[in-house]
Fold:
Amino acid sequence: MKSKRITIADIAQKSGYSKTAVSFAFNCPERISRDAVEKILKIAQELDYFPDPMARNFSLGRHLSLGFLVPQSFDISMKNPHVVDVLRGIGSVCESYGYTITCIPPLRSSIAEAIKNATVDGIIGMGLEFGSEVQEAFKRRKLPFVCIDAIDEENVISVSIDNKEAAKRQMTEALKRGHRKIAVISLPGAAYLSDNDSPTVAPGVASARNRGYQEAEEEFGINTPFKTYPVLATKEGGEEAVKRILSDERPTCIITMSDIQALGAIEYLERQGIRVPEDVSVMGFDGIYHNVMGKNLCSIDQRGHEKGEKAAEMLFEIIKGNEPENKISLIPFTFEEGETLKDIS
Amino acid sequence: MKSKRITIADIAQKSGYSKTAVSFAFNCPERISRDAVEKILKIAQELDYFPDPMARNFSLGRHLSLGFLVPQSFDISMKNPHVVDVLRGIGSVCESYGYTITCIPPLRSSIAEAIKNATVDGIIGMGLEFGSEVQEAFKRRKLPFVCIDAIDEENVISVSIDNKEAAKRQMTEALKRGHRKIAVISLPGAAYLSDNDSPTVAPGVASARNRGYQEAEEEFGINTPFKTYPVLATKEGGEEAVKRILSDERPTCIITMSDIQALGAIEYLERQGIRVPEDVSVMGFDGIYHNVMGKNLCSIDQRGHEKGEKAAEMLFEIIKGNEPENKISLIPFTFEEGETLKDIS
DNA sequence: AATGGGACATAAACTAGTTTAGGAAGGGAG
DNA sequence: CTCCCTTCCTAAACTAGTTTATGTCCCATT
Structure:
């Protein structure tokens, strides 16, 4: 007794018209007599029929959806407001195009598997490792693709800020204020692979930023290099990194690669009775928290929303068939003054 | 010269096997000789072929994606961390099922249109108005459907906290601390339609909460009713409401229906030199901000993540064909003490 | 030699729409 | 009366896969 679903053929039969006529009644009523349209729609109404959008999209060779490939598990990714900001930017563009946004988490722990199964017109990746399986998956699917935060990667259309310059600015601001003992809370995974680790892996934002930090130190003539503590871009990551930092020599300034790490760091420090910025300065990165524990967070604003918007717009261009003239699109960043960075000079 | 895409038929031809064999090679290699599988996969590799997931899903009558129907525009919705929290919960369940999450914004400003075009196996709606077109759209699409925050609505499978009780608790805590001049920052849209406004519209969370506020007042024998200021659940909404509140008689306590409204309210108040809680107390609702301007925000924690998880799990049950025994699933809430609510008794 | 079973392969139908190419009918012009 | 042009409509092919029902071949039993 499983009620087979009603199709265009049923409506055609009941109405005495052809499938073509029914299709036209829904999609281009002007190509058919007013009379026929009315009859067909009436019968459709009676039978609670509505054209199946998947069959429709399949037939038309489209999906009406853009994919957002999240770097880690969905749960972790969405805990980072910067990722949410980017998604929001993507979403607002999709909305204006009448597209949905498909959030694509790793499938069976594999990003490549997820790409292979994605039913979308194009994909925006963020913080992606370009391992060979991922490249292979994109190659086979022939899916238009834009990457956020994948500078330095050849042949990838990407959107990001100038991470090296932003990091250089961050470090410079700390050095200008007299800080010399500086710890860096960094990012995990591909992000800290150096350029020559593997030719198929993108160096990622972290190594670009590390170069920026180095350049700043060089300009100040400093040769005691900063120490890095790579952790996930989560509050817990920030806490964990601070624990490790405190078990080493205490720095005067902690530079983080993510506001949410800075949040975790500051909360942990204050719980330990270490005041920010009186005892330790902290700098964020992202520009998503203007206020942390009652203090304005000093940070780099990298306009997540704009990054998302730009990536989505570029992707729509590619889907339309227009290759963008420049592969790398740089979004301007700004340095955000804040109370969490103290002048100790 | 438009290169037609490679299909299973091309691989069948080149390999000398049938379409069936190619299909089996990818999906159930054990049903075909080892030899055939190898040959077919080799040719597929050479031609950069991979089965089209949309055609696959279409053929199998599934989508491998759950829809998340956002209440307002995507941009506004995602600015509210509570919505993000819910989405995160949905996403983590989808991820474990190997599903993607399709975020569905209104299509051409119409939620009904969006539903009609959604290519998903089921939909989770949040804060939805059940206007007749929306009901009609669901009826026609025969899509499994779970609604978050739609208590009181008959025949809808829903997940929420007990909004009336939560609000009653909120108001009671304010009254217990001696507050008598109380302003309520409420929610917009369907949310403040009373029960008899229209039979096709869900009364929504706001009216349930209003009943809770009233009950609390009655228990305290108060007959000067609280005044409500309905605005969007955004920071800007909170600011706007406070402006209006301040142009009326200044209350001793502002109860909001959303933490993000509370955030906007507190920031605006402090910018005006009005201290929280010394001059005015503020209560949030959601339990997403533990810290606002250096103060612990007093709020109701409604476990957005759990709401999302529960809704997704129920939806997967329905998709499997198991109707849930109880239509309404209540998630427990907790009252969060905080420094923004002062005892003035 | 006939029978049975397992392994392997495939033709054809099926998913639910869109679209192309063309046919039939009717009306107006030459 | 013929020709042509609309208007209205439809058969059949097309989207790219899966699946059912069947068939063939080969080998081991009776």
Remarks:
- Confidence is low (pLDDT under 50) at residues 190-202 of chain B.
- Chain B touches chain A through 52 residues (CB under 8 Å).
